[in-house]
Amino acid sequence: MYTSKCPGKGDPQGITSRGRHTTAQSDWFPAVHTYSMSPVLFWFLLYSCCLCQGHCRLYDRLRELNTEFAVKLYQTIVTTENRTNLVISPSSVAASLGLLQFGAQGSTFTQIEKALGYNVYDKTVESFMKMMHNELTNSGQDTSIHLACALFVQAGTPISTQFTEHAIQWANSSLQLTNFSESNRTTNLINQWVNRNTGGGVDALVPSGDFSSAFMQIALASTMYFKSKWKTKFSFTDTQTLPFISTDGSVVKVPMMHQTADINYGQFETPSFEKFTVVELPYLGNTVSMFVVRPTDRNTPLSSIESNLTSKSIAVWANSMKRTKMDIFLPRFKLECYSDLKRALPGLGVSDLFDPRKADFKGISEQRNLYISQAIHKAEIEVEEGGTRGSGVTGMALLKRSRMPVFKADSPFIFFLRSAASGPVLFIGRVTNPLL
């Protein structure tokens, strides 16, 4: 039995839902109705609630693992490549590794599993990834997100039917046959696929002639395409040429965008008490936001924040910021970065797949000589007044002084694009000089 209280007047007939006569209720008190419930239905509902809670906890853990992978990949590339500006798409790299995990065995499989934090054969992982992919690709007409993977396989290589079945259901993946001995043709095929799956945003992933080895059997490519407008646009007429202090202390003049808006804002500090500021700039639809992280003191190096980045710290920022009306200054910038994953992934414990003696991809093909000879990642991002690609004339209007809080990204900062619903980090990077 369970009891429900219904607001409003009492039962004027003095009749319960089971038809028994009861004392009439006062107009000042709600009537109390009782209903019978089948024990089987009760236990089914209880089991469903527990199952839902279990899935929610597992999904939360998978969101955390996705973010942790993004942070570790970013930290590794920052360390191994020592770049000034940087942008990567962790979601794209994770999708590639997930696809390879379907074909990996032995220590190759284990290394990928440990790096990602999950087993792609797990049914919960499978349902979470499908949910995440659907959320991202159905973000609304104002936001376009597209994730895709492709394996380019040497024609004639026997491919496992089971692997093919898994591959075509993973992150919008596809298998394409090619002839690696025809280097230019293969290069064009891969670059055309990349261009098509980034809405024309990336012209070339592979430099001409990069696939010149007749011994190559498989090439892997993945893309993450994002395009959206700001929820609150920066006005072109408010953009000014202002100083930006780069890492080495030199000053460069950059087009600095401006807006006044209610945004999420927070001030935090590292374990060594170095203060920094975080703001969240949402895109239309509130599906994705850009987080901008900047040291409060210009003398604090960006590395002090980068070294303390974790999935938990990002979750704390997102949940702790307060809605604040602010003057926001953000430089207009465009980044395009190649990253060599053969240098980065070993830092995450993934190395066997690059070693012809250790790589085990018998889940893809029974041929024992399969290994990953190249792993190139390219990411591009362009941040402008409207949030979309396009050119505009920089205005030179002077802004009035304001007494409201100011966030001014006029020195090196970290940024990342994060999905509000499913939590994955689509892009993460740093800007130390917007003009480079």
UniProtKB/TrEMBL annotation:
Domain of life: Eukaryota
Family designation: Belongs to the serpin family.
Signal sequence bounds: none
Region listing for Disordered, in residue ranges: 1-21
Gene Ontology CC annotation, any one: extracellular space
Transmembrane regions: none
Domain (Serpin): residue spans on this chain: 71-434
InterPro entries from the UniProt entry: Serpin_CS, Serpin_dom, Serpin_fam, Serpin_sf, Serpin_sf_1, Serpin_sf_2
Any one Gene Ontology molecular-function term assigned to this protein's record: serine-type endopeptidase inhibitor activity
Listed SMART domains: SERPIN (SM00093)
Name of the protein: Serpin domain-containing protein
